[in-house]
Amino acid sequence: MRPGIPPRALALCEEAARAGGRVLLDWIGRFAVTNKGPRDLVTEADVASQREIRRILLGGFPDHDFVGEETLPEHVADGRQPVAGGPQYRWVVDPLDGTSNYVHGFPAWCVSIALAAGDELLVGTVYDPQRDECYSAERGKGATLNGRPIAVARTPSLSESLVAISFPPHVELGSPPINDFLAVLPRVHSVRRSGSTALNLAWLACGRLDAFWVRRIASWDMAAGALLVREAGGSIVGFAQGRVAAPSAAAIPLADPAFIAACTPDVLAELCTLLTASGTGRG
Q1: What value does the mean pLDDT take over residues 182-211?
Q2: Where does residue 125 rank: exposed (0-12), middle (13-18), buried (19+ CB within 10 A)?
Q3: CA-CA to 239 of 20 to 30 Å: which in 173, 253, 269, 271?
């Protein structure tokens, strides 16, 4: 039996995302920055946003688990990945997707929140505070932007597509992400790199982009966006070890997500062929 969606889950998801966004706007220009890994950053704003989001979500659903990008000392019991036998419902949260953009004042960052049961995504919100754009989706009920229904573009071929790419914080020449980029670049209309997986997926869902892929990402970066794409009529498939899973409604494992998303089946098929040929490893 498929898990039910708790009453008011989407409303609370949107409330928490907007609250986290307000925190981030308030911190602009007055935060300190630390490193949490090679070319990866965390700010006081990330932490403050996550605390506010967690307060709202677990205030409404105290029996739910919470998976956030930032490790906070007072939340050491929170799960960071799906755990067998754990709580049925789990909030998957990125309090600031696009931290490097945020630090540099580049306007491509957002809050991403999703509710999952196992690997099944139930509700999700991606909120862009600077544009006041709130993308939301609920399983089986479509996707919206500020309350209005959205749908993916109907682009018929990869050659006409505007696609987005994602590179890890550290990337080397000859690595699979670079091979992917070189394979796709001459076959599309144009390529973009925004620095925010959640926004890439939200923009795909509303028709601004035609395709996006990533070989290595965290669950909190993609959970809400993946649901947006599906509910907006797009296609998204798993991408593991250089092999592309058959298109289906099957969930992408949140413990180690990798995927290819596109607006139409034809664009997806062409992109899958190129990416499968460009490399066989994860990177």
Answers
A1: 95
A2: buried
A3: 173
- What pLDDT, on a 0 to 100 scale, did the predictor assign at position 75? 53
What DSSP element (H or E) covers 162?
strand 162-164
Tokens of 51: 């605390």
Helix (H, G, I), strand (E, B) or coil at 39: coil
- What does the mean pLDDT of the chain come to? 86
Report the 10 Å Cβ neighbour count for 150: 21
Please indicate whether residue 170 or residue 173 has the higher confidence score (pLDDT). 173
**C-alpha to C-alpha distances, 90 to 60, 121, 174, 225, nearest whole angstrom:** 13, 10, 37, 16
Tell me the CA distances in angstroms from 157 to 132, 163, 192, 267, 272, one per residue in order.
31, 12, 17, 5, 13
Paired strand residues for 236? 261
Name the burial class of residue 187, with classes exposed (0-12), middle (13-18) and buried (19+) by CB atoms within 10 angstroms of its CB: middle
For every residue of 194-237, DSSP letters joined together read -S-HHHHHHHHHTTS-SEEEESS--HHHHHHHHHHHHHTT-EEE
- In this structure, are residues 272 and 178 in contact, taking their beta carbons and an 8 Å threshold? no
Which residue do the tokens 């909190």 mark? 220
Sequence-separated contacts (24+) of 238-241 with Cβ below 8 Å: 239/213, 239/214, 239/215, 239/275, 240/282, 241/280, 241/281, 241/282
Which residues, in sequence order, are CB contacts of 252 under 8 Å at separation 6+?
119, 222, 226, 236, 237, 238, 258, 259
Assess whether pLDDT exceeds 70 at residue 86.
Answer: no
List the domains of the chain with CATH numbers. 9-149 (3.30.540.10), 158-278 (3.40.190.80)
For 40-54, 203-217, 231-245, which range has the lowest pLDDT when averaged over its residues? Answer: 231-245
